């Protein structure tokens, strides 16, 4: 993959990278933007199709080993070959519309529609989570702590939005992401597949986490920022679980944790035992 030097910000070959703050790529052929060296490395290792790579000379040098692992031209299909563009930092910033201080971007192709794996014992289900930072953090936590899939209600944010991908550290490239179409009726499909619907909620009557007994197959339901899970979802739940708050926290009006933090605590306490022995994925 011989780098192609770009000297003008208006080069038409870089249309996918233009004005990234102002738009998503979900309407442009099912593509997404990967940002930062660590995320681009994970994209290159994921097996997903890469359409192009844009990097500064310095960042391209540090990515050389990851690019070398891609099949050389002529040994794989057309999807294995993509252009690598190299630009000065100033030009990259003009193209993207902001300072890309990590020095590299790549355009990938979204994976085909996923399904919950037949052997999954734990799945995480999000209802109307619209904050992309929280969505990315939940995806990273779910992957790190052994969940077999991430299921989203129709009102959830896009897990392949640039910032969600970055916060997830590319976890969405590997973790099956299932977008439900009929909400909350699709939860009944999880139950039919043998999952117990476990709703995380601070409401009265929920079993405190230390006393909660994990079911064999668990669909952990997490709600949106602020309102939490809807009454319709709570009514469908087989069990309710709550993370007890310290008395000092309750006195300050704190009755729950951030959704990504709460999900991580519950997944660690109730999740796959093997996940607790795996190396830290952030290192």
Chain-wise SSE layout:
Elements: E1 4-5, E2 31-35, H1 37-46, E3 50-55, H2 57-62, H3 64-68, E4 84-86, H4 89-96, E5 104-109, E6 122-126, H5 132-144, E7 149-152, H6 162-168, E8 177-179, H7 186-192, E9 196-200, E10 207-208, E11 218-222, H8 231-236, E12 239-242, H9 247-251, H10 259-270
Structure, briefly:
The chain has 283 residues and is an alpha/beta fold.
CATH superfamily heading of the largest domain: SPOUT methyltransferase, trefoil knot domain
The run of helices and strands is EEHEHHEHEEHEHEHEEEHEHH
Number of H- or I-type helical stretches: 10
Number of domains: 2
Give the strand line-up of the largest sheet. 8-7-6-11-9-12-10
CATH topology term of the largest domain: Alpha/beta knot
Low-confidence segments: none
Helix content estimate: 25-40%
For the secondary structure, the number of strands is: 12
Shape: elongated
In the CATH hierarchy, what is the class of the largest domain? Alpha Beta
Strand residue percentage: 15-25%
Output the structural class. alpha/beta
Overall CATH architecture of the largest domain = 3-Layer(aba) Sandwich
Largest sheet: 7 strands, parallel
Query: What is the residue-mean pLDDT, rounded to a whole number?
Result: 89
Radius of gyration from the alpha-carbon trace, in angstroms? 21 Å
Q: Note the gap between the termini.
A: 28 Å
What does this structure look like?
This protein has helices spanning about 35-45, 55-60, 65-70, 90-95, 130-145, 160-170, 185-190, 230-235, 245-250, 260-270; strands at about 5, 30-35, 50-55, 85, 105-110, 120-125, 150, 175-180, 195-200, 205-210, 220, 240. The chain folds into 2 domains: about 5-110, 2-Layer Sandwich (60s Ribosomal Protein L30, Chain: A), CATH 3.30.1330; about 120-275, Alpha/beta knot (3-Layer(aba) Sandwich), CATH 3.40.1280. It is of the alpha/beta class. The protein has a 7-stranded parallel beta sheet. Strands 1-4-3-5-2 form a 5-stranded mixed beta sheet.
């Amino acid at each position: 993959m011989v780098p192609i030097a770009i000297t003008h910000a208006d080069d038409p070959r870089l249309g996918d990278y233009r004005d990234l703050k102002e738009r998503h790529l979900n309407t442009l052929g099912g593509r997404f933007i990967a940002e930062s060296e660590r995320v681009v490395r994970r994209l290159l290792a994921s097996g997903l199709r890469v359409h192009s790579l844009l990097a500064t000379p310095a960042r391209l040098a540090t990515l050389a080993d990851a690019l070398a692992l891609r099949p050389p031209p002529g040994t794989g299909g057309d999807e294995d070959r993509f252009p690598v563009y190299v630009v000065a930092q100033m030009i990259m910033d003009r193209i993207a519309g902001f300072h890309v201080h990590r020095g590299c971007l790549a355009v990938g192709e979204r994976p085909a529609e996923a399904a919950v794996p037949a052997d999954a014992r734990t799945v995480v289900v999000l209802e109307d989570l619209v904050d992309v930072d929280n969505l990315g953090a939940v995806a990273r936590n779910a992957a790190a702590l052994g969940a077999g899939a991430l299921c989203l209600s129709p009102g959830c944010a896009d897990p392949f939005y640039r910032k969600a991908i970055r916060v997830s550290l590319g976890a969405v490239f590997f973790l099956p992401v299932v977008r439900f179409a009929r909400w909350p009726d699709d939860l009944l499909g999880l139950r039919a597949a043998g999952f117990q619907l476990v709703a995380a909620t601070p409401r009265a009557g929920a079993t405190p986490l230390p006393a909660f007994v994990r079911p064999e197959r668990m669909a952990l339901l997490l709600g949106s920022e602020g309102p939490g899970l809807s009454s319709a979802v709570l009514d469908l739940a087989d069990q309710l679980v709550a993370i007890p708050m310290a008395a000092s926290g309750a006195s300050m009006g704190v009755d729950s944790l951030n959704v990504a933090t709460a999900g991580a605590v519950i997944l660690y306490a109730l999740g796959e035992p093997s996940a607790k022995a795996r190396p830290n994925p952030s290192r």
